[in-house]
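User: What would this chain look like folded?
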Amino acid sequence: MKAVLQRVSAASVAVDGKIVGECKAGLMILLGVAEGDTERDAELLAAKILKLRIFNDENGKMNLSVQDIDGELLVISQFTLLADYSHGNRPSYTDSAKPDEADRLYEYFVSLVRTQVKHTGTGIFGADMKVSLVNDGPVTITMDSEKLKKNRS
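Assistant: Here's the prediction, encoded as structure tokens.
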């Protein structure tokens, strides 16, 4: 499972011209589910993301988590994070989980973070979405559940 986190002042996602999810100050998370991912991948990423200290404290040092600042989340599914671009010029997405499984694990991830964050907006799985955000910093971090699993071994 891969995630791209962006620290934002605000973010929203629209489908067919209508806002379907949004957040104020906090994190926008693009989430890609890989073939073979399990609930454990979602649990590891969710736990790490919620405790990641990337928000400024009173001294301007990135020392606070999204929970510490009472921030919000916007979680958007994005299978293109699993793109294999090693051959040719057209990316392959065969490493992505099948849609039914990807949707299940995406919803599971969302359910995990919703228990810890006061507001979690979402996109619509599989929809053509238009994402708007104000990146704060900018701070953008990529995460991969495989790296988290290796560190726990």
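The chain is about 25% helix and 35% strand. If you want, I can go into more detail on any region.
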